[in-house]
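Recall that a protein's primary structure is simply its ordered list of amino acids. Everything else, from secondary elements to tertiary packing, is in principle encoded there. The following example makes that idea concrete.
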Amino acid sequence: MDWGTELWDQFESIDKYLQHGFDFGEKYSKFIKERCAIEQEYATKLRKLVKSYQPKKKDEERSMFSTHKAFQTQLSELNDIAGQHETVAENMMSNIFKESQIFFNEQKIEKKRMYQEGKSLQIALDKCEQNLEHTKKKFEKEWKDCERLQANFEKLDSDTNVTKADVEKAKHAWFAKKDVVEHCKQDYGAALETFNVDQHSHYSTRMPQVFQGYHAADERRILKIRDLMVEYAKIDKKVKPIIQKCLDGMETAGNAVDPKLDSSLVVEKLKSGFLIPGNKEFEDYTAGPKTLKLDQNLRHSVTANKKKIISMFKSSKENFPSVEISGPIGGDIAGSAESPSNDYLIPLPSRPDPPSRPDPPTAEENPYDMFAHLISPYFLSDTFCKIICFTTKLHVVAEAADYSHLPPEQRKKKLQRHIDDLSKEIAKQQDEKKAIVKMHGIYTANPALGDPTSLDAGQKAVDAKIDKLMTELQQYENWYTEAFGSLQSSPARNSAHYTTPVKVEPLAIQPQTQNKSLQRDQSFGDEFDELDDFPEPIGTCTALYDYEATSEGALSITCGQVFSLLEADNGDGWTRVMLGNSDGYVPSSYIEV
């Protein structure tokens, strides 16, 4: 449909319509801008939310549980979703808003040009019409004057009283006006013809071109808005699969929550390794002073024997760390407020090789021996320990370098982790040493590249670090073997480029048999006796999860396999099983007996 033909007389209306169309385009651009702001704000708030719920340092130990891992996965996926919303905002801003701004600004300029062109054509036609009206009015005026002169001549000619000269004069004026009328008539005819030609050209050629420009501009505007709307949907649609993938990841993380696994992790994390306390003995107060309580013995022995404790270590005091005994000591502890003196700083010897494990003292023994048992080097070596008396109870709080202040199971894990960390650091330092040696060889072969002696200082420093780390590693290995027997193999130790005199094999199954009452029912020799290679099975067990053995002595298992149970878990988290002719250790939490 041709606007120039159908809307030939609606120039102003068409211009207003097109202006309204451009206003709509700007309104849509504003909508996109606000949508981008909302998406960006939403993404920012999501990222802030994710950041606020990131695990704190104090919660790192809990991150092993499946619920915490699932939540961290969901936070990670939510952070990715926030990134997709940022992508939506960026793409809409660049592909829609900015492009629409450029387009509509250009179209506004084009519309203004077309409007000015149409107005100039209209003004030219109006001038032509004004000229026509002017010639027409002049022709009309001259014709009326001519008619008046003609009537005057005829009047004078019929009047006998008028002289002939007056008649001739009137006749001459009449004929002169007739000539003027004829010229005005010709001018009017020419002006009319010119106007008709211009008007026909105006409405058939020139203005239709302007209308066609308006029509094309309006179609471009409509097509552009259509494209922007399609692009708007595509940008949103493009991120939906990614967001869906993130949501699927959240769902997978939620399905991965395993209460049985978390329960086994709680056992692994909190298991102390102590034996369950045995039955308490009957204390017969009628039998005499032999049945005094332990707290009474301690209360009366601390003051009476503090000088004896000091003199015990006085000969080698300068070589030992100290233990501070603080709190009300002497007399009745519950009612005394006596402040401790400097005499309560008791030097303790370093850890012996290896310490014996005496049975707990009884009421018949010397109270001092019982107290010395509590502060024995096995619990308080290489550190400061506070023995704090509150009312009638005596508490031992220690932070030992060998982790002897921890329960057996937790101490074993701490020592193993420390040994693994030292092994990794030694491997790292030895790799650095190899690099220095290799560089030294290159410099020696080609002195132009560098001075070999410049590497000596670095090599000595690395050697010193390795020696220090090896010494520390040997110390922790000795502490481990003294308390628990042979070391457990780990990937970090297997990959280290060094050897130690300690045999690497799965952890010994016999636990440390020290309970919270500090009882010792077995000696070190009885705890770590070697077992037969293939003992008689004591039952069967089923694998709950897949496990890939990464250490010597361990056995790989697959979910659903049934094994013969050779040795039960005695507190170290490992169970010995046999499948066919192969036997080894597997994590206790991975099987069901």
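Residues 46 and 52 are 10 Å apart (CA to CA). Residues 288-398 form one domain.
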